[in-house]
């Protein structure tokens, strides 16, 4: 996927994406009928947009909105702790490039309290953003919490050290994202597909990339990494079971020599060796050699891998919506600006 062109919206150039896999309409019956048109809200720290802060733009979206909302964030460093509340679905938050559109906060504490960006609303899309928690190495510090169904992230950078991405609940899709951390840095009980993502472990020794939290065999959750790349500062494990039925699959993923030969750990709880499901399928690179892997992990056959590769874990791709091609403006905002009162 890449930027294939741009659209000029009232003087603003909005990059258009080629999203070949996303050419379906939203499957949800309650969503907007027309997914090609969105209400555009511009965030610009210089004061030339509708709002200077991202949270102000989210606050302006009416509760239970039935419109697609496209919040376009001009490049800048936004020092904000942001919440997308549960009653504001169908918001897209889009930067221009992740390298220059940075949302940053510095907070440690409980995982539900510390996130820089908390997505509690369904049908959220994040694009071209860096989402960062700069707290550092001394404790839990979530950068992004996703606790809602049908969320997708494209070309984002998600940065912290411990519990970077709290991929909490719902079905999620991450495409071409960079995710960095050291301890359990992709954790939670969502059903998520990570495609063509780059996972970078910052730990000197014994980093843990995933801590998936599935608690019961009845839950249809787990993390699948498809066509990803792993890099490491020091040694790292692929995962350990936060929940007894933790489920993680790496497929067609590059693994460096820094991946510890055992690959997976039971987190001091041997009973989880028989309930957790950890699989690898056609991974490559010096760290992908499974000859010394823990015996309770699985080398998947094509048939065993198929359900994870077919996107069934995120409920198919019908809910992924294309980037809107038409934008309209909130006439009231324009009026307020024309009066010079905003
Ligand atoms: C549209 O403008 C009105 C009046 O200023 C405001 O109350 C509302 O929140 C705006 N909606 C959006 C989505 O910005
Ligand atoms: C939004 O929808 C919820 C659930 O249907 C309802 O409880 C709430 O009152 C609605 N809010 C507004 C402002 O209409
Ligand atoms: C983050 O905040 C802590 C105090 O809570 C402080 O010690 C640390 O220097 C801050 N880090 C950054 C990068 O601002
Ligand atoms: C890393 O894990 C290995 C195996 O569990 C253990 O022997 C070693 O002490 C750990 N190293 C550190 C620095 O925790
Ligand atoms: C995997 O590692 C084992 C032992 O460390 C070695 O004998 C084997 O040749 C390796 N396989 C590949 C494909 O490198």
TrEMBL record:
The lineage of its organism: Eukaryota, Viridiplantae, Streptophyta, Embryophyta, Tracheophyta. Acts in the modification of cell walls via demethylesterification of cell wall pectin. Keywords: Aspartyl esterase, Glycoprotein, Hydrolase, Signal. It catalyses: [(1->4)-alpha-D-galacturonosyl methyl ester](n) + n H2O = [(1->4)-alpha-D-galacturonosyl](n) + n methanol + n H(+). The keyword Glycoprotein applies. This is pectinesterase. Pathway: Glycan metabolism; pectin degradation; 2-dehydro-3-deoxy-D-gluconate from pectin: step 1/5. GO terms for biological process: cell wall modification; pectin catabolic process.
């Amino acid at each position: 996927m890449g930027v294939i062109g741009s659209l000029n919206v009232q003087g603003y150039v909005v990059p258009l994406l080629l999203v070949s896999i996303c050419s379906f309409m939203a499957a949800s019956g309650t969503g907007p009928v027309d997914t090609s048109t969105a209400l555009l809200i511009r965030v610009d720290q210089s004061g030339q947009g509708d709002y200077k802060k991202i949270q102000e733009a989210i606050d302006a979206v009416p509760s239970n909105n039935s419109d697609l909302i496209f919040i376009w964030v001009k490049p800048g460093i936004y020092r904000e702790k942001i919440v997308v509340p549960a009653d504001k679905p169908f918001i897209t938050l889009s930067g221009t490039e992740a390298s220059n559109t940075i949302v940053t906060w510095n907070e440690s504490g409980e995982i539900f309290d510390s996130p820089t960006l908390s997505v509690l609303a369904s049908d959220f899309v994040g694009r071209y953003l860096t989402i960062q928690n700069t707290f550092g190495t001394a404790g839990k510090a979530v950068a992004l919490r996703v606790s809602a169904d049908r969320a997708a992230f494209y070309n984002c950078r998600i940065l912290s050290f411990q519990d970077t991405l709290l991929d909490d609940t719902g079905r999620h899709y991450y495409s071409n994202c960079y995710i960095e951390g050291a301890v359990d840095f992709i954790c939670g009980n969502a059903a998520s597909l990570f495609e063509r993502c780059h996972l970078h472990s910052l730990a000197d020794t014994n980093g843990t990339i995933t801590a998936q939290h599935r608690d019961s065999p009845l839950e249809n959750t787990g993390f699948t990494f498809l066509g990803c790349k792993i890099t490491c500062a020091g040694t790292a494990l692929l995962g350990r079971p936060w929940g007894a039925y933790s489920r993680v699959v790496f497929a067609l993923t590059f693994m460096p020599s820094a991946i510890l030969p055992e690959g997976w750990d039971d987190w001091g709880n041997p009973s989880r060796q028989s309930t957790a499901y950890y699989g690898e399928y056609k991974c490559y690179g010096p760290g992908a050699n499974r000859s010394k892997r823990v015996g309770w992990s699985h080398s998947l056959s094509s048939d065993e891998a198929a359900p994870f590769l077919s996107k069934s874990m995120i409920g198919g791709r019908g809910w992924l919506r294309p980037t809107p091609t038409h934008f309209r403006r909130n006439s009231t905002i324009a009026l307020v600006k024309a009066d010079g009162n905003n």
